[in-house]
Every structure is written in C-alpha cells, then in structure tokens.
Amino acid sequence: MSIRVIVADDQEIVRTGLAMILDAQPDIEVIGQAADGRRAVELARHLRPDVCLFDIRMPDLDGIEATRRLAGPTLDDPLAVVVITTFDLDDYVYTALRAGARGFLLKDAGPELLAQAVHAAADGDALIAPSITARLLAAFAKTGPATPPAQPVEALTEREEQILVTVARGRTNSEIADELYISLSTVKAHITNLMTKLGARNRVEIAMWAYETNRVGS
C-alpha cells in the first residue's frame, strides 16, 4: 500500500515540486496540499495521512504550531510529521522535535533523502538530515529543560546502551545491525525496549535522552 502524504508550503512552486518528487516514488501518494498551517491541520485531521510534510515558515499558522497540534506530546493518536525548511538553525530543529516532528530536513536535501524521511516517519522511525544530526541533537543537552532527564523505568542493559549511542549518532536500523553484528529484528526489538524504558515515542526522543544524559558527546 502507498504511503499517504500531505504537503504544506506557502510557496506554490516549492509545494508543487515536493509533491511531484514524492508522487514519482512507487509507494508514496500525495493526497493533499496546503498553502498555510491552518489549512494543513484541517486537511490532516480530515484525511489522516500516514505522513505530513510541513514547511516551518507558513502564514496563519506556522509549521511548528501545526506540528504541535497534530503530533504534540499530549496527543493520544499523533500523526507523523516531517518538517522541511531552508533554514539550518538550531532553534528551529529543537522546537520542531519538541513539538513532535519525526524528521527534519533542509530543502536542498534531495529527492532520495526526502523519500527516506517519509518512509522513516511512516514506519514510526525518524530521520534528521545527516549534515545536522549530531550538532543539533547535541543542542538538547545545552538548551533543553532545566529539570533533570527522566530516569528509565528499568536499568538499560549493556546492549541497550550500545543501541542507544548508535541511535543518537543517527544510524539507521540496518547500519546498527551491521555495526553490532546482530539481526535487523533484534535491533528493532532493542529500540522498542528503549522506548518503553525511557518513555520515548520514537528514536528522536531516544537520541535526545542520550544527549541529555551525556551518553554521547557533542
């Protein structure tokens, strides 16, 4: 089945281009487009797409607030949102991920990475542009909440600690499997256990916790 996507960007030429790139993928279908955040939220709530692709800077309601309304941490049934922007700024990434985004890409990332981000979000995974992953996730350790990071409900095993670090460094499941010489299903099981123990909803939050607890250096 195709991954159903909504694209929101206030620039028509950009919005149309993103939609064309995604529609060219054999297993991705763009089912709606919006020129502002408010319309994007309305469309998403009505159509319940598998993934929402939102620009950050949009009129009426920006991409951050649209993300918060559809994927925020207080929602019981959040949608998958990937944020895409021209601006490589720490504050944007930090705020977008805190709002619930499952991915963050720059508009010059290219068709392949864009498709990868959509697939990752649809699979409950997360992808951040490799060029900014470590630097921006490391910012969470410096600019995150003043309260100490939550402690895991159960101590992490040695293998889970290894998986935690690889996730924080932006490795995909396949790369982790190759690096640690374990099966893909084993990687997925460990990541599921990490989410349960850390109270994380996705691997972005796992990575954030790793940085906030100094498991990974900046």
TrEMBL record:
One Pfam entry name: GerE
Stretches assigned to coiled coil: none
InterPro entries: CheY-like_superfamily, NreC/VraR/RcsB-like_REC, Sig_transdc_resp-reg_C-effctor, Sig_transdc_resp-reg_receiver, Tscrpt_reg_LuxR_C, WalR-like
Residues of the HTH luxR-type domain: 149-214
Domain Response regulatory: 4-122
Chain positions with 4-aspartylphosphate modification: D55
Superkingdom: Bacteria
Keywords of this entry: DNA-binding, Phosphoprotein, Transcription, Transcription regulation
Record bears the keyword Nucleotide-binding: no
SMART domains: HTH_LUXR (SM00421), REC (SM00448)
Record bears the keyword Membrane: no
The protein's name in its UniProt record: Response regulator transcription factor
